[in-house]
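Folding follows sequence. Below is one example:
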Amino acid sequence: MEKRNTIQKQLVLDAVFRLANHPTAEEVYAEVARSHPTVSKATVYRNLGSLSEDGLLRHIKMPGGADRFDHMLLEHHHIICTRCGCFADAPASGSAALDEAVARQTGYSGVSHDIVFRGLCPECAKAGKA
C-alpha cells in the first residue's frame, strides 16, 4: 500500500530539518504548533513514526529518556552530556564491520545499531560541573 504524502507529514519533516538539533517529539510538536496550531500532537507523533519507517528520518531510541529524531541519514553516532543533556553527532567508523560481525556471530540478518555515547560536554567539563 502506497503511503500518502500529506501536508502534515511535510510540516513535521520541515520542523525536524529546521530544528536540526535531534529534537524530541514534543519539541517537533511545539515547532509545528507555532505556525499551525490546529495540527494535533497525535498527528505529529504519527507522522514522525511514518517518516522514520519510510527512511526519511532517523529515530533514535533513548532508554530512560525521550526518543529523538535526526534529519541526517548518513551513518553516524551520537553523544549526550550527562550533566546538561546536550545531544550531538559523533563520528562513526567501523559501523558496517560491527553490523557484519554481529550478524555473522548471531545468525541474524538486517543487523543495524544506534550508539549513543555519554560524557561531559566541553562546557560542563570547563565549568567543573562533574
